[in-house]
Specification:
alpha/beta; Aspartate Aminotransferase, domain 2; 2 domains; seven-stranded mixed β-sheet; four-stranded mixed β-sheet; about 40% helix; about 20% strand; globular; binds pyridoxal-5'-phosphate
Length: about 450
């Protein structure tokens, strides 16, 4: 066997990677990856190296032996908690199944598609799998155009929304990420959230292929679409022949108390995009579920059937993890738990808001998807205040949270759904103290 060190100078083996110190890993990240991202992580005190997790995956341990509580869960990825044994066990068992090519039979992806369809119900039935959320949003754009066979290519999305950072998904998202990307996808309009007249106006010319909405906006700072709005939006999409696409990448998979957040409104979109929590956070996995009609309109012939395939779609390990993650959520009644725990958190956070109205503008959310918006007497200090709260939580109280990058006045809580009441209380107490600390810090 060739010695890898001789074959390639500077090559680092897997074993060495596993034993690498935090400092060495940071220096490699700086040299070979996004050094500005590492700089920000260092400034916030977020550059920790986690090496293990506790029983429900909310407690995390870093390389220096510190204990942390995870209240951001990879921004909604870790619905089942870090290092979930049930999910890991499924991946282990699937590791000996060879992945040959797209035409080989793949029971794991077929079963995951079945399970997602059964948990969704109604007419949503056909499932496509990819790897990232942005890719799944691109796939939703693509199927919409395919279904209209070139007759409609306009899109409407919601102001302040976020659908990813690839060209199509940026086109539907907040302008912030469109730097030097012009020309973007043409024919995209944004409408304000929960403004049904604006949506009517945008759709009434009957030339819009699809309306994209996050039922609970995540990156935009946790803004909830009302049930009335979702119902009216569904009716308008049907009236004007526009496809309704719900982006459930952050709010889906049980986080708000139902499989999908739109289900609270009793509606059925034409397509639902998912990613993040679908694999339990272990493996890259995303996709969409759509109606059989939409699928057949777009890809239902031998000529069109191969118009959107991707190499890593239907990946055996990802889909195995996906089946196990859903099993874990159902076996532990975590959809219902998300409702109860969300109400508990929102109730307590609203009480904290009442006592701190000078700095907390609003607490919003649904289930375990919660945002706390800060404002300060000097408006320009609000972002700094939110950043100090998040950094204090992370460094002093060792609670992982993040402010919203698209709306930095909002600090978010998206813990794993198995979070305990004790852990929530620890978060709430630390949160109250972090506000006092931030007030002192901003005075100084
Ligand atoms: C609602 C929503 N859509 C799309 C995306 C993009 O997903 P990804 O980062 O996997 O490309 C995100 C990511 O945060 C998201 O929250």
């Amino acid at each position: 066997m060739t010695n890898v060190k001789k074959a390639c100078e500077g090559f680092i083996t897997f074993q060495e990677a596993k034993e690498m110190s935090k400092e060495d890993a940071i220096s490699l990240q700086k040299e070979f990856q996004n050094h500005e991202r590492v700089k920000l992580a260092e400034q916030l005190g977020a550059a920790q190296q986690f090496v293990g997790a506790g029983e429900n995956g909310v407690e995390l341990f870093d390389s220096e032996g510190n204990r942390h509580l995870d209240f951001i869960g990879g921004v909604g990825v870790m619905t089942v908690g870090s290092c979930n044994k049930h999910v890991w066990n499924a991946i282990e068992q699937a590791k000996d199944i060879p992945a040959i090519h797209a035409l080989a039979v793949r029971p794991m992806s077929a079963v995951l598609a079945n399970n997602i369809a059964k948990l969704t119900g109604g007419n949503l039935k056909k499932v496509w799998f990819g790897t990232s959320g942005s890719e799944a949003c691109e796939a939703a754009i693509k199927i919409s155009k395919m279904a209209f066979k070139g007759c409609r290519h306009k899109f409407v999305s919601v102001y302040n929304g976020y659908h990813g950072k690839t060209t199509g998904s940026i086109s539907l998202s907040r302008e912030k990420w469109a730097l030097h990307q012009s020309p973007l996808m043409p024919g995209v309009k944004t409408v304000p959230l929960n403004d049904i007249d604006a949506l009517d106006y945008a759709l009434k010319y009957e030339d819009v292929a699809a309306f994209f909405i996050e039922p609970v906006q995540g990156e935009g700072g946790i803004h909830v679409a009302t049930d009335e709005y979702l119902k009216a939006a569904r009716e308008l999409c049907t009236k004007y022949g526009t496809l309704m696409v719900c982006d459930e990448i952050q709010c889906g998979l049980g986080r708000t108390g139902k499989m999908w957040a739109f289900q609270h409104a009793g509606i059925e979109p034409d397509l639902v995009v998912f990613a993040k929590g679908v694999s339990g956070g272990y493996m890259p996995l995303s996709g969409y579920i759509c109606t059989e009609k939409l699928w057949n309109d777009a890809y239902g012939t031998p000529e069109t059937a191969f118009h959107h395939t991707v190499t890593y779609g239907n990946n055996i390990l990802s889909c195995s993890a996906g089946i196990a993650a859903l099993e874990y959520l159902l076996e532990n009644d975590l959809f219902d738990a998300a409702v109860e725990k969300g109400e508990y958190m929102l109730g307590k956070l609203n009480a904290i808001q009442k006592e701190n109205q000078d700095v907390i503008k609003e607490v919003r959310g649904k289930g375990l998807m919660i945002g706390i918006e800060f404002h300060t007497p000097k408006e320009e200090n609000s972002e700094a205040f939110a950043a100090v709260v998040a950094a204090t939580l992370m460094n002093k109280y060792r609670i992982q949270t993040l402010f919203s990058i698209n709306n930095p006045v909002v600090v978010r809580a998206l813990p794993p759904l198995a979070v305990t009441y004790e852990q929530m209380d620890e978060f709430l107490t630390s949160f109250g103290s972090a506000i006092d600390d931030a007030r002192e810090h901003m005075k100084a």
